[in-house]
Amino acid sequence: MELKIIHFYPDLMSLYGSYANVSVLRRYLEALGCTVTVQPVRPGEGADIAGADFLFMGAGTERAQRFAAGDFVQYGPAVKALAEDGCAMLFAGTAMELLGASVTDKDGETYSGIGLAAFTTVQGSRRIVGDVYGSTDLYPEPVVGFMNKCGETHGVETPLLTGLTMGFGNEAEKGPEGFHWKNVFASELTGPLLVKNPRLLEAVAAAICARRGIPLPEERPAFPYAEAGYAITAEQLKLRAEAKQ
Amino acid sequence: MKKFLAILVCKFGRAVGKLVGKGSSMPGKFALKICPDILARVRLPQHVIAVTGSNGKTSTVEMIAAILRAGGKTVVYNEEGSNQIEGVTTTVLTHASLTGAVRADVLLIESDERYAAQSFRYFHPTEFVITNLYRDQLTRNGHPEWVYDAILPAIHPETELILNADDPLSSCFARGHEKVKWFGLDRCPSDTDAPTGAYRDGAYCPVCRAPMEYDYVHYNHIGAFRCTKCGHRKPATDYTATALDLERGTLTIDGSVTIQLAFRSIYNVYNVLAAYAACRECGVASDTAAGVINNYILKNGRMQKFTLGAHRGMLLTSKHENSIAYDTNLRYIRAAQDPCTVLVIVDAVSRKYFTSETSWLWDIDFNQLNAPQVQRVILSGRYCNDLAERFSFTDIPWEKVTVQPDIPAAAAELKAAGSEDLYVVTCFSDRDKILSQVVKEA
C-alpha cells in the first residue's frame, strides 16, 4: 500500500524538532509494509493535497506562524474536506492555532485561521513553558510532553488531552489541552510528540490505516528505545506531578 | 545616602560572600532593594562594553578582558558569570568608590540575553557586542526571535552595536540603528554552498520571510546570506577574517594581522573576531590585540584532555539544549584523522528536575558522526534511550552504536579495552560524572 504524507512548511514551521513526528510515523508505516512518500509544501508554491493520507504541520515562531497562516488559508477548504472524510492529521505547536477561527498576536493584531474549529487563540508577552503530564480518552496510558507557547486557546470543545495533572493546557493550568475531532489531532505540546508518546503514534497510524483498509497485525511494530524512553519519562513526570499535589 | 548605603551593603555582602563561598548575585540584589536605580547613580568608566548572544559570550568576554589589559587598560567585569541584573550590580558596586565612581577604564559585562533590557534600564553600554542568536535553551528562551524581541529594548540609540554580519537574525539589530560596526568572515576553504544541520533557520528571511540564498556558508545557517526579495543581506564588514585555514590553524584579520589559533574551530574564529572588533573600537592597537589572541588558550575549560586506560581522551563541553554547540563539537570530531570512539552523555537536562524536554536532540546533526574514523558511539546517561531513538534516524551503522545507561560502567568498559582516541560530548551539568572516572591532564 502506498501512503502519502503532506508536510506543510518543513523549513518554516520547524521549531523543537517538529519534523521527528513525520520521521517516526513514516518508520511505523513502513514497518507495516507500506510505501510512504512525504511531500513537502512550501509557502507560495501551491500543492494538490487531495489524495493525502496524513497532513502535518509543526511549530514555528509567532512571526513564522503568521506568515504560514497567510499561505495556509488557500488549503482551508481542502483540509476541512479531508478532515470530514476521516483523513488523519497532526498540527503540533503553534500550527494547532491555525486550525481555529483566529489568532491574535501579542501586538493585538488578529488574523484568520482556516476555521476547521471555532476556537480562538490570543497570544501574549508571557512565555508558558513547562512539562505536561496528562490523560487522553484515546488510550489508558498517560501522555507526556513539554509546553512552550505564548498563547491561550479558548473554545475548544473536544480536547486531545482531557485532563492534566501537571502543566498548562489550552487556557488554564491543569486544564484540557489540544484538539481532537474525527482523526484530526492537534496539540501545543511542542516538538516530537509522537516520538515521546508511542501510544499516540499508534493511534495516529491506526487512523491512517483504518481509512485505507490496511489491516493492523496482532503484534504492532515495536521500537524498544522509544518505549524505554517513554517509560522513564512517564515515571519521572508522575513523581513530579504527585509531589506537587 | 541611599546610594552610599547600597554601595556599602554590596561591598560588605561581597566580602562576606567570598569568605563563605557564596555566589555573586546576592549582594547586588540587596543593593537594588535599598536603591533600585543605583546603576543610574554611579559614575561609569568611559567605555562600557556589553556582550550578549546565544553562543560564545563567556569566551568573547574573557578574550576582550585579556586584550584590554594587555593594552594597558584596567578592566572590571563579571568574571563569575552572574550575568543578570543582580550580578551586574554586584560587579559595578564592588568596584566603585563609596561615592560611586567605578575605578576602571572599561566596565565589561557579559549579559544574559533575556535580561539585558533590565540590566541596561539605568545605563547603557557604549559598545554592545551581540555574538549571534541561535536556538538555545528553548525551555526558557522560547525561540530565537523571542530572544531578539527581548534584547531589542536594551539597545540605546547612542550605543555602538558590534554585530555578526554572517548571522541573518542578530544582524537585524542594525535596522534603524545608526552606529553599527560589523565583524564577519570572508569565503574560506571549509565553507559549504548551502546551509547544513538538522534544521534550516536560514531558509527564510527573518525580515520578510521570502526564501534566502547563500553565496557561501561557514556553518549551519551562518554565512553570506541574501534575501531574494527585501534586500536583507550580509553587509560589508569592518573587521574581517580575510583568510582562514583551519587545518593549519591560521587566521588573517583585515588582510594584515595573522594569528595562530590554539583552538582550530570556526566558532572560535567568531569569538576572536568579536573580541578583536570590540577592543579596536576601544582604541587598542591591532598588534596588541593580535599578540594576545595568538595561541590564546581559553581559561573557561570547555575542552579538557584526559586519559582513560590506554585511551587519550578529550571532553568537548556542549551545552544541552543548544544544537549549535553540539554541532560545533561534532564537526570537530568529524575533522579528526585518527580512529576514535565517541561517548555522548545526556543524564540531566535540567539541574533542578527531570524534564521531558528532549526536542533539542532532534535539532542536533548527529549524522556528522557517520565518518570512517568514528569506530564506535556509546550513548550513556538517563536519556540514553532518547539518544538511541534519535541516533536510529542517522545513517550511522547500528553495529557501531552501544547504549549504556550507567556512566561509570561506560567508563569502566572503555578503560578495560582499546587504545583509540576518545571524545566525550556532554554538558557542564553532566561532565563531572565522567571526569570523576578519568585522569585529567593539566
Question: What are its keywords?
Answer:
heterodimer; A: 245 residues; alpha/beta; Rossmann fold; 6-stranded mixed sheet; 5-stranded mixed sheet; B: 442 residues; UDP-N-acetylmuramoyl-L-alanine:D-glutamate ligase; Protein-Tyrosine Phosphatase, Chain A; 2 domains; 9-stranded mixed sheet; 7-stranded mixed sheet; 31% helix; 22% strand
Brief write-up:
The complex is a heterodimer of chains A (245) and B (442). With 245 residues, chain A is of the alpha/beta class. Chain A has helices spanning 20-31, 62-72, 76-84, 193-196, 198-212, 224-244, and strands at 2-8, 35-41, 54-57, 88-92, 102-104, 110-112, 120-136, 143-154, 161-166, 179-181, 184-187.
Description:
- The complex is a heterodimer of chains A (245) and B (442).
- Chain A is α/β, with parallel strands linked by helices.
- Chain A contains 6 helices and 11 strands.
- Chain A has one domain: Rossmann fold (3-Layer(aba) Sandwich), CATH 3.40.50.
- Chain A has helices spanning 20-31, 62-72, 76-84, 193-196, 198-212, 224-244, and strands at residues 2-8, 35-41, 54-57, 88-92, 102-104, 110-112, 120-136, 143-154, 161-166, 179-181, 184-187.
- In chain A, strand 7 and strand 8 (143-154) form a beta hairpin.
- In chain A, helix 1 (20-31) packs across helix 5.
- Chain B has 2 domains: 2-293, Mur-like, catalytic domain (UDP-N-acetylmuramoyl-L-alanine:D-glutamate ligase); 303-440, Mur ligase, C-terminal domain (Protein-Tyrosine Phosphatase, Chain A, Alpha-Beta Complex).
- Chain B has helices at residues 2-20, 26-34, 38-41, 57-70, 85-94, 116-119, 138-141, 144-151, 266-281, 286-293, 323-334, 360-363, 384-391, 407-416, 428-435; strands at 47-52, 75-77, 106-110, 127-130, 160-164, 180-185, 212-219, 222-227, 239-245, 250-253, 257-260, 303-308, 311-317, 340-345, 374-380, 401-404, 421-426, 439-440.
- Chain A binds chain B through residues 11-12, 14-17, 19-20, 23, 27, 43, 61-64, 67, 127, 129, 131-132, 144-146, 148, 150, 190-192, 195-196, 223, 225-226, 228-229, 232-233, 236-237, 239-240, and chain B through 135, 138-140, 142-146, 198-201, 203-204, 206, 209, 353-363, 382-383, 385-386, 388-390, 392-393, 403.
